[in-house]
Amino acid sequence: MEKNDTTQRTSYHWPEDILAALERGEITAAEAFTRFRQLESVGGFSDKEPQTNKEINDVMHELDALVGLESVKKLVREIKAFIEIQKRRQHERLVSEPIVLHMIFRGNPGTGKTTVARILGKLFRAMGVLPKGHLVEVERADLVGEYIGHTAQKTREHLKKATGGILFIDEAYSLARGGEKDFGKESVDCLCKYMEDNKENIILILAGYRKEMEKFLEVNPGLRSRFPIHMDFPDYTGAELLEIARRMLQQRQYRLAPGAEKELAIRVTGAGYISDAYAGNARLVRNLLEKAIRKQAVRLVSKPVLTRDDLMTIQYDDLREVE
Amino acid sequence: MNECILVGQPNAGKTLFALRFVEFLGMRSLDVTFMASDGMLSCKHYKVDQAIRELSGLERHKTRELQTIALQVPVGKSIRSMKLIDSCGLSEGIHPEAVIRKAMAQTLSVMRYAKVILHMIDVTLYVKRKQLADIDQQIAQYGQLKGGYAILANKMDLPNAKEGLNFLADSFPARPIIPVSALQKKGLKEVKALVSRYL
Q1: Please, which of A139, B5, B61, B162 could form a disulfide with B85 given CB 3.0 to 4.6 Å?
Q2: How many CB atoms lie within 10 A of CB B28?
């Protein structure tokens, strides 16, 4: 009787757990069938512990909270579904596709590439695709050496650091800079070799401007097939940049005075800003706000009496003074 | 490879039926691969008569591990490969012997991915008893989730077997039930026809 009570409380998330319980004499064969049916027909196999499910949901919420990036979010959901289904197929001993998740991110600076890469690291760790899920961010100078043999050594060093997580190579197209004699090619070869040998332990993301990345892939045709996932990060629209600015201020517990809000809207949606080479750049919005926060501090520092409201409000002049 | 597993309560006649089926396909001898609960594999060559003598018997749980026989089944004008897997009987309650419990876990494990599940039931169990054994009920419910599932009503050669068969037909109205007799080699053709559909 006591044993039955125990089994009623125990929940099994994997078929192997049910079989092990049967072997240990914790449940009868008939109960094992009931458990199998519950797993298979009612809710489908729950490959994940509840804690893992929560972790995955948290990561997806984090992704959904990003402003804009609808096409990126859609693609991430597709990747998540693909991984889940392949894992379920493996459990059912069905032929499953190899999970190759190396990616190419194309977009201007400040369009969310690194942020999304960090979220993907967390997601892949939660889903059990990567053991650690951390992000190592590098650029050409970190990978390419100055003399023969130096490049492979530097590249391998960073690859080892990134093992278990994601190696994010910013402005990856610059690895093709300098032609045949450049050591960048040696770095690319080293990357390809390592990702083949450690396919279950590392994910590489090559990031850079759209046009430059296209040229980079043309010069290295073998890369295209090795990096099956391509994500385009479009520039943020004016409205999206304004929303990003609002959220950034909210996180820092600042608010805009009515005049300042108007000025910010003009700054981020105005023709002058949008026609800039860095149009749609969330990083510039952040810099703009940080400068305005500093201007506000200078304005307030000499005042003898300050209210809570004063400390929180960015005035029109604070923004106007930012170049 | 197409896997077809024979499951059921101990002493339902699974092993004898498997060997009769091999014989029915025209084989005089066979290779049986034994898979112990620790995953250890061993193989032995038998003449069919010898296999019947050595592998089947009247005692409960004579089969204590998975016994796989590779078969070539003629389907129309072609020949299809299949593995016929004889399994440890699934008894009610918690079995006191760890070896048997492990063997039962093996049976369930194979049932999860087998293409065909042949559920063997001793009809004489249901001549007097008018309530389905929980284990038979559970096997049937699980089996119906899979594509290829059928009940083999064995021991039709025994007296009053028809009564038990009728009870099974009433209990499982939507499932295919094939009356067989492993002892008298009855129903083998029908089973082959059913299995061929899934190969």
Answers
A1: B5
A2: 9
pLDDT digits (tens, 9 = 90+) for A202-228: 899 999 888 888 888 887 777 888 888
Candidates A24, A34, A40; nearest CB to B138: A34
CATH of segment(s) A238-320: 1.10.8.60
Q: Does A24 touch chain B (CB under 8 A)?
A: yes
- Asked if A19's CB is within 8 angstroms of B108's CB, the reply is yes
Domain that holds residue B121: 2-196
d(CA B46, CA A171): 68
Q: What is the CA radius of gyration of chain B?
A: 16
Shortest alpha-carbon distance between residue B98 and chain A (Å): 7
Chain A to chain B Cβ contacts (< 8 Å): 58
- Indicate yes or no: pTM above 0.90: no
Hey, is the C-beta of A41 within 8 angstroms of any chain B C-beta?
A: yes
Q: Which of A116, A125, A196, A185 is nearest to A155 (CA)?
A: A185
Complete edge-to-edge strand list for the sheet that includes strand B177-179: B41-47, B29-35, B66-75, B78-86, B2-8, B116-122, B148-154, B177-179
Residue with token string 């800079």: A177
How confident is residue A47, by pLDDT bands cut at 50, 70 and 90?
A: very low
Domain with CATH 3.40.50.300 in chain A: 51-233
A92 touches chain B (CB under 8 A): yes
SS3 state of residue A200? coil
Residues of chain A by 3-state class (helix, strand, coil), percent to 5: 60, 10, 30
Q: Which of A23, A34, A45, A92 to mutate to test the interface with B (most CBs of B within 10 A)?
A: A23
Domain count, chain B: 1
Supply the DSSP string of B99-126, one letter for each residue.
HHHHHHHHHHHHHHH-SEEEEEEETTHH
**Domain CATH for B85:** 3.40.50.300
Residue found under tokens 């090619």: A185
Handedness of CA A263, A268, A273, A275 (dihedral sign): negative
Exposure b/e, B125-150, CB count within 10 A at least 16 = b: bbbeeeebbbbbebbbbbbeebebbb
Q: Nearest CB to B104: which of A20, A22, A41?
A: A22
Tell me if chain A has a CB within 8 Å of the CB of B144.
no
- pLDDT by residue (tens digit) across B120-131? 999 999 988 878
**Residue numbers in A near B90 (CB within 8 A):** 29
ipTM above 0.95, yes or no: no
Query: A30 and B145 in contact by Cβ < 8 A?
Result: no
Q: Are B48 and B30 in contact (CB under 8 A)?
A: yes
| Inter-chain CB proximity B138 and A93 less than 8 Å | no
C-alpha to C-alpha distance for B51 and B28, rounded to whole angstroms: 11
- Comparing alpha-carbon positions, the chain B residue that sits nearest to A40 is B145
